[in-house]
Amino acid sequence: MGSSEIEEKADFDHIRYAQLWEDADVLTSALGDCAGKTLVSICSAGDNALAMLTLDPARVVVLDLSLAQIACLKLRIAAYKVLTHPEFIELTGSRRSTRRGALLNRVLKATDAETRAFWRALIPDAEKHGIGGVGKFERYFRIFRTWLLPLVHSRRTIDAVFVPRAPAERQTFFDTRFNTVRWRLLLNIFFSRFVMGRMGRDSAFFDHVDGSPAKHVARRIRHAGVTTDPSQNPYLHWILKGDHGDALPMAWRPEHYETIRSRLDRLDIRHGSLEAFVSTGEKASGFNLSDIFEYMSPETFREVYGSVLTAAEPNARLVYWNMMAPRRVPSKYLDRVETLTNIETQQKARDMAFFYSDFVVEEVQP
Ligand SMILES: C[S@@+](CC[C@H](N)C(=O)[O-])C[C@H]1O[C@@H](n2cnc3c(N)ncnc32)[C@H](O)[C@@H]1O
């Protein structure tokens, strides 16, 4: 093995995810004590590999099939080096800014020629939306917010979502003001397989998914609106308002900025698949696998899972999400892996990136 099934199906020429839509607080809590250890992370936009540096590992090997995604991480690395924290969160798009072009130019000077050339072509978009807003996934949310959301909810209602409330009041607000007939109709159309496949995710990613994406999204929006506190949810804020509110994703918070900046040299970035990494014979004590298993057929998943086990140190944790397709330790490895149900339950309850139906934490037995 060494090449990846999805590699052959989807094209990875452009940025798909310009920011991480997986909750790094949940991820880092689930990985446990990783001080001094080697970790592996899927790159995506890089933010969760950066958040993993707060665990004080010796090294984080960051992998992605897509050079565009790796360019997101490389740009961030330069940004941590040359920008102050307030400048950084203007550049990301978390905060409004009229000087993103100038900030981006400074950052581009501090990065390598390939990353610079890649991002130069994206300057107009990055000026408008921030470097965290230029992916296909974010564009999909932007279309939703700009063209469809106003047909359903007023700006006042959207602003009211982010007013801090006690849980019982959140329920009332959700039931009486937010979850209207029009809202449900919008979800059904926008999150149909057809539209999601065309605009957000490559339709190949739905090959293995059961059930309607819209029904799934409706359930998860209740989690984001009622179970957890929307006023503390940066992802929901970005989707509905186009930037981050009072809450930021973990790697972008001021309290972690210096720690991450001082550990950037512990990132070991590699263009290639997880399957290629495990075939090198290297080992790691913790794996952030994003939701990549869901993109594989059940057979490929079982095969790749087995190969990850060969690259896992005793007590290594495998942490991953599923959006819709069920993926958990295959039955043939049940005696080698323990599911950390308590950690899963605790972390699922606070997961602010609400799209996922499942969060998995598995520990390799010594
Ligand atoms: C699985 S996607 C999911 C993105 C995600 N939910 C987010 O919030 O960013 C994350 C990244 O995994 C990469 N990827 C998918 N399969 C992979 C594999 N087998 N090995 C390495 N990277 C992979 C994709 O290129 C993509 O950048």
How does the SSE layout of this entry go?
Blueprint lengths: L23 H8 L6 E5 L4 H6 L6 E6 L2 H16 L2 H8 L7 H10 L3 H8 L2 H7 L6 H17 L2 H7 L5 H12 L2 H10 L2 H7 L13 H15 L6 H8 L12 H9 L4 E5 L2 H5 L5 E5 L9 H13 L1 E11 L14 E3 L1 H10 L7 E7 L2
Parallel strand pairs: 1-2, 1-4, 2-3, 4-5
Antiparallel strand pairs: 5-7, 6-7
Helix pairs in contact: 1-18, 3-5, 3-6, 4-5, 8-11, 10-13, 11-13
Bound molecules: S-adenosylmethionine.
Task: Describe the fold and architecture.
The chain has 366 residues and is an alpha/beta fold. The chain has 2 domains: 6-69 and 250-364, 3-Layer(aba) Sandwich (Rossmann fold); 136-241, no CATH class. The chain contains 18 helices and 7 strands. The protein has helices at 24-31, 47-52, 67-82, 85-92, 100-109, 113-120, 123-129, 136-152, 155-161, 167-178, 181-190, 193-199, 213-227, 234-241, 254-262, 274-278, 298-310, 341-350; strands at 38-42, 59-64, 267-271, 284-288, 312-322, 337-339, 358-364. Strands 3-2-1-4-5-7-6 form a 7-stranded mixed β-sheet. α3 packs across α5 (100-109) and α8 packs antiparallel against α11. The model is unreliable at 8-12 (pLDDT under 50). The protein binds S-adenosylmethionine. S-adenosylmethionine is lined by residues 4, 6, 12, 16-17, 20-22, 42, 44-45, 63-66, 69, 273-275, 290-292, 295.
Compact description:
It contains 18 helices and 7 strands.
